[in-house]
Fold:
Amino acid sequence: MTTPHSVTVHAEPYPFELSRDSCALLLIDLQRDFLEPGGFGEMLGNDVSQLRRVIEPNRKLLAAWRAHDLPVMHTREGHRPDLSDLPPAKKIRGRGTTTIGDAGPMGRILVRGEAGHDIIPELYPLPSEPVIDKPGKGAFFATDLHAILQNRGITQLIVTGVTTEVCVNTTVREANDRGYDCLVPEDCVGSYFPEFQTMGLAMIKAQGGIFGWVSHSERILAALE
Ligand code: C5J
Structure:
């Protein structure tokens, strides 16, 4: 529905009516261990350039959100230092020699307070922007994100970050089930695997937007201006 405070963003499967009064930018897990050369992601053999290409479009989108004084929130995937919130199944999954909680190239892997767990400097949160520390893939599981969004009257989310098929997709699905409208700018989300990037986006907008909408940051910026 178009209102005096809404703008239309060209999107698929159909235009997204972005309400300036109730739309937050949610940046998912833009953490050093996932994106930086020398981090845990690269140590596992992943090509971090596939994720690093999202930095610049996210930087522009974040700058616009801040300039318009619209709400911004960030998430980080990780666990308590004593690993009491780490399910044993997650700890042993993959049968790797180095797993969550072990010493990695940037401190203990996916442990809160370690260098690799923190958000990359290019997109670092302002003190006024909530940072949601999440133990799971979805940003709503075992966090206060839903309460924070409800308290601020937010009903729409622009979801960006990494990885497209894991934490971004899981969060969009969780948000959809809680009644939020989600728009995903394709250039602001990234996967180590190009085929998962393609299919992760296709799944969101399939069947008339079964989980949400897909667009491009430039289209969102154009609509905001
Ligand atoms: C995220 C992961 N953030 N792929 N985590 O997607 O394990």
User: Anything to note?
Assistant: The mean pLDDT is 96. DSSP finds nine helices and eleven strands in the chain.
